[in-house]
Each structure stands twice: as C-alpha cells, then as structure tokens.
Amino acid sequence: MSTTSSTRVALVTGASGGIGRAVAQRLATDGLAVAVHYAGNESAADALVAEIIENGGQTVAVGGDVADEQAMQAAFDAAEHAFGGIDVVVNTAGVMVLGSIADYSLDDFDRIVRTNLRGSFVVSQLAAKHMRAGGAIINFSTSVTRTQFPTYGPYVATKAAVESLSLILARELRGRDITVNTVAPGPTATPLFLEGKSDEAVQGLAKAVPLERLGEPSDIAETVAFLAGPARWVNGQTIFANGGLA
Questions:
Q1: Which of 14, 7, 51 lies closest to 183 in space, CA to CA?
Q2: How far apart are CA 140 and CA 148, in angstroms?
Q3: CA 71 to chain centre
Q4: Are 96 and 71 in contact (CB under 8 A)?
Q5: Pairwise CA distance, residues 135 & 241, whole Å
Q6: CA 215 remoteness from chain centre
Q7: Which of 50, 52, 171, 215 is most deeply buried (CB count within 10 A of its CB)?
Q8: What SS3 state is found at 140?
Q9: Sign (positive/negative) of CA torsion 128, 122, 233, 57?
C-alpha cells in the first residue's frame, strides 16, 4: 500500500476494540492512513481493516504487545513501510483490574503496570523517535485521577504516571513541531469499562455525569481527532473528555 506525500499516517494501539476502534474509524474518515494495532485479537483488527478499506480508506494491521519494545519497533516499522512515515500515534491500549489497595494482587498490579505504564512508555519513546514534524502523540489516562473512586487505586496510579510522562515528553520535544497530549475519558460504554459492573453500578456512574449518560467511544474519538488534526496549539495538556464528571 502506498499513500500520497500529503496523506497523514496514524498508528492506533489497542484498535481492535472499544475506544481504539472508534479512534481508528474516525481518523480514517478524516482521511488519515491508519495502522490498526492489536495485541491478541487479530480477527477483530482484520475486520476493522476490511471495513476501512471498504469505505475507501488506507489501512494495515500491525500486532504486538505494547510493553515489548521489539514487537512495537516492528509495528512502527510496518506502518512506515506501508505508508512512508508516521504523523500521529494514539496509544489507547490498556487493561483495568479493580480492587482495594489493601487486598490487591501483586500479580494484577504487575500486569497493569506492564501494559498501562511500561506500554505507554515504550510507545511514547518509539513515537518520539519516529514521528515526523507536525506530528501528534496522544496517550490515554482516566478521569478517575480526579474523581478518585474506591477500588481504582492501582489502575489510577498507572494512568497518573502516564499523564506526567506525557507532559514532560511534550517539553522534551521542543523545536520538533510535535504535540504530546493525554486524553482522560470519563465513564465510557466499552467492554473494558462494563466488565464486572452490575447494571446498578453502571447506571449510577451514568447519572453521576451532568449529561446523565455514559460516554460513547465516538465521543472520545472526537477529542482524539481534534488533537490529531487542527489542535496544533494544544500541547502538554490532559483533556478530560467526561461529560462534566466532577
């Protein structure tokens, strides 16, 4: 596959489902060539690739564990080989295991630190090395860094670290015309969010938002599209896309 020299290219991690899928769809609709990354769900990534191609877009699937620097180097190389460069990296890949800090499994803690924090570091580091001028790096946090709901402690710890990492990277890339921002969604109707929650808990979180609904993946994709495209003066920020959740 080849692109014209004016086509912007995006690599979206975790694009096989949830928010990542919506982001990849939206960026393709905006005319970007999209590398659809997956970790384990290759069939879902292939289905998304087929959908984007059917709609006239340019895309390729790339696999790998986001915390494995060699696997992600290969993913970046594959995107560059397919499209000639990388202009936007959106790192939506993440895992969430809830539990009280006092009783939390250290195995679960190591797992979420590996994917959410090390993975974000690996992807951000590679993006900083591969990104063309005019590019945008967009990492993901959570609005629970502010709401501080019980049982989210370990998960929020990884996401707060991602925010700090992103803010510092934005300043380290001075002079390269590359923005680095973090999107912090509120309660959003994705499998990751809904897993393990009762209907009552889900409805309670929806009502906590002034708009009195859960966010949709497309709501988050709108914010990402803004940061990936026209928002060149937004840099080193955490954007809370949460419907007004306090």
A1: 14
A2: 17
A3: 18
A4: no
A5: 21
A6: 15
A7: 215
A8: strand
A9: positive
All domains in the chain, ordered by first residue: 9-241 (3.40.50.720)
| C-alpha–C-alpha distance, residues 14 and 7, integer Å | 22
In sequence order, what are the residues at sequence separation of 6 or more whose Cβ sits closer than 8 angstroms to the Cβ of residue 31? 7, 8
Rounded distance between C-alpha atoms, residue 93 and residue 174, angstroms: 26
Residues of the chain where predicted confidence (pLDDT) is lower than 70: 1-5
Please compute Rg for the chain using Cα positions: 17
Residue 60 bridge partners (DSSP): 35
Is 56 in a helix, a strand, or coil?
Answer: coil
For the chain, where are the alpha helices, taking DSSP H only?
18-29, 42-54, 69-83, 106-112, 119-130, 144-147, 153-172, 191-194, 199-208, 217-228
Which residues does residue 179 pair with via DSSP β-bridges, in sequence order? 136
Given strand 136-140, what is the order of strands in its sheet? 59-63, 33-38, 9-13, 88-91, 136-140, 179-185, 238-241
Task: Read off the pTM.
Answer: 0.94
**The pLDDT of residue 4:** 56
Residue 96 burial (CB count, 10 A): 20
- The pLDDT of residue 205 is 82
What is d(CA 52, CA 29) in angstroms, rounded to the nearest whole number?
8
Q: Return d(Cα 128, Cα 140) in angstroms, integer.
A: 16
Task: For the beta carbon of residue 198, count every other beta carbon within 10 angstroms.
Answer: 8
Token pair for residue 77? 């190389």
What does the alpha-carbon distance between residue 50 and residue 58 come to, in Å, rounded to a whole number?
A: 10
First to last CA, the chain: 45
Active site annotation includes 155? yes
